[in-house]
Amino acid sequence: MVGKSLDGLKQWKCKNNHLLGIVERVHVSSDRGKYNVSRLILFRQAIDIDPTSTASLADVDVIGNIEGTVMDIRCSIPGCGEVRTWWMGEAALDMFLASRMVKV
Ligand SMILES: [Zn+2]
Question: Looking at the 3D structure of the chain, how many domains does it have?
Answer without folding.
Answer: 1
